Amino acid sequence: MPFEEELLDLARKGADEAEVYALTYEETPVSFEANRLKSILTRQSRGVALRIIKGGRIGFAAGAGPERPQELLEIALETAQFGAEARFHLPPPGAYATVEVYDPALEQVTVESMVQAGQSAIDRIVAHTPGILCEGSLVKRTSTLRLLNSAGASLSSRKTVFSARLEGTLVRGTEMLFVGDAQASCRPALDLSPLVAETIQQLELTREVAPAPQGEVPVIFTPKGVAQAFALPLSMGLSGKNVLQGSSPLADLLGQQRFDPRFSLTDDPLTPFAPGSRPFDDEGVPCRPLPLIQAGVPRGFLYDLQTAGMAGLASTGSATRALTTLPAPGLSVMVVSPGDVSYVDLVAGVSEGLVVEEMLGASQGNVLGGDFSGNVLLGYKIQGGRLVGRVKDTMVAGNVYALLKELRGISREARWVGGSLLTPAIACQKVFVSTKA
Hints:
By secondary structure, this protein is an alpha+beta fold. The chain contains ten helices and 20 strands. Strands 1, 2, 3, 4, 5, 6 and 7 form a seven-stranded antiparallel β-sheet that branches. A five-stranded mixed barrel has the order 8-15-16-18-20. The longest helix has 18 residues, at 111-128.
């Protein structure tokens, strides 16, 4: 009998309800440093987690597996004595959508081809800008998730992910410039030309240094800027757990016009070949697209089984977890709807302002309240409707909920950031900008 079935069978006898969550994966990262190959690794991992309900309370145990099932059960039973009150029952099998997250072509990708793709991309960047030092990585990963429970669910999902990252550091006198880009997909993509092109464009735009504007000025956040400044506060505000705790600024605003009518946000775990996609969540609840904000109006929150039970609602299929943690509600694939104006026109409409490409330390401050602040790692000054040079020693700060109330515009072009966020550029009316004297 497979280990997962053996563990579930044993847990059924000692607990009222039981769930086995098992994850195995194999990944091969190819790393580069100082413009040359640094290392090639292949690593495998397996882990298993047991969650039970005993006497109305939740018990939990996890191990690297294959652990002895009796030991895991004993730990879970012991923790159940002090565990939280269970406000749910484990779900029976449901109707699961088909979502493409596995590509067998990944198995045909060789280490040699990954080395060649990475080195070729770095060579092209160095040829454009001699003296730049590049690092990066290409990673291929295949994982299998098995989820079984005492309600009869027996689920399995196999996923492939191929990711690539390039970063360049250029020293100019006493200054250091950081450029680069990344991409991720469930399908292999050895053509790194988009990353090279983006990095070279950044190098071209940073040839000149321009004094940053100060005070409250128009700021355009590129997709990477949106990811770093907006994604975390919004995901926390939309969490049903924070709503229950009364700490979400959106808790009492369902159905009310809270944001600019042009702003819409959906969690879509059925997006084909997005690394964050999945047919069922980490508790076995079927996934579906969830409109969270429509035309500026909050429409719903993210719930797992426990928080949904506490709220008197049904789970939204939003449970996420690591092997060593209990489930919690979270986003799968965050999709911000595109606007109706080009990025070029967004820039052209600003007489003086800033483009934020990348930030450092944006999660400082009261993130749950929507605040962000951080140094601009890569950004450009807008003067007279065009980019005139990069800014340095610059910091931006604002509140997501205030900024999204009235926008200058949203670009029609959108791009993936990290494989779990698809977003256009967002142009804000006034963001606080400061620089060192």
